[in-house]
Amino acid sequence: MNYSLDFSAVIFDLDGTLLYTLEEIAATGNAALKRLGYATHSVSAYRTFLGGGAKKLAWRILPQDKRNQENYDELLPVLLEEFELSLNTIARPYDGVLEALAVLSSAGKKFAVLSNKPEEFSKIAVEKLLPGVNFEAVYGALQNVPLKPEPDRALKLAELMGTTPDRTVFVGDSDVDIQTGLNAGMITVGAGWGFRGVDELKEAGANIILDVPADLAKLL
After folding, report:
1. How far is CA 139 from CA 42, 43, 166, 194, in A?
2. How do the pLDDT tens digits run along the chain, 220 residues long?
3. Alpha helices in 62-189 (DSSP H)
4. Which residues, at least 6 apart from 106, have a Cβ–Cβ distance to it below 8 Å?
5. Rounded to 5 degrees, what are φ and ψ at 42?
6. Are 5 and 99 in contact (CB under 8 A)?
């Protein structure tokens, strides 16, 4: 199916949309938990822990009976240290992502990244794993800046790319991403190949759900 959307720019989520990072994040989280003597989680459990940034991840991976401020304050810096150690050691682009981005670029579409992963890590990941892709900007989590699903930075990216929200596609694999796009008045596209699955994307109200990254070309 070709959707023939009227758009000039695309904002992509990063983890679970452009990059398969689930095993890397699970290894990172489990390494941090081990250092502090906590039990670890299965890789699949991390699917539900992700989407809110490093701070929420730290809280969610703590054992339920250990979720308090003291333990959280101890775990978060350890988690960030482990992130830095493991960054881009297992992660890879999803099959078909680079080809789809090339097609969109050839059609004159601009694109950017908006992630809840720390901005420094987001930029390093894009540079290493998506080389040669001309992103207008890569935004990630910063101190005292609202995370997704707040629409502030999505709107800023649209402005930066010289377009309006209604001519901007927001692509992501979680309800947080779809909510961000909806909050910003953008066209929302669910990455059905990502971490969270089609049902969550449908429930969140995605305008379109795609099965594989190659389907991004069908938006033209």
Report:
1. 29, 26, 20, 20
2. 556 688 999 999 999 999 999 999 999 999 999 999 999 999 999 988 987 778 999 999 999 999 999 999 999 999 999 988 998 899 999 999 999 999 999 999 999 999 999 999 999 999 999 999 999 999 999 999 999 999 999 999 999 999 999 999 999 999 999 999 999 999 999 999 999 889 999 999 999 999 999 999 999 8
3. 69-86, 97-106, 119-129, 152-160, 175-183
4. none
5. -70, 160
6. no
Q: 187-191 and 208-210 as β-strands: parallel, antiparallel, unpaired?
A: parallel
Q: Are 174 and 13 in contact (CB under 8 A)?
A: yes
Q: Give alpha helix (H) positions in the chain.
A: 22-35, 46-49, 54-61, 69-86, 97-106, 119-129, 152-160, 175-183, 198-204
20: amino acid identity, one letter: Y
Q: Are 26 and 41 in contact (CB under 8 A)?
A: yes
Type of residue found at 159 = E
Q: Which residues lie across from 114 on neighbouring strands?
A: 139
Contact 15, 21 (CB under 8 A): yes
Q: Tokens 């489990």 appear where? A: 30
Structure tokens at 186: 């953008």
Cα separation, 57 vs 52, in Å, equals 7
* Nearest in space to 16 (alpha carbons), one of 116, 124, 147: 116
State whether residue 190 is helix, strand or coil: strand
> How far is Cα 1 from Cα 141, in angstroms, rounded to an integer?
35
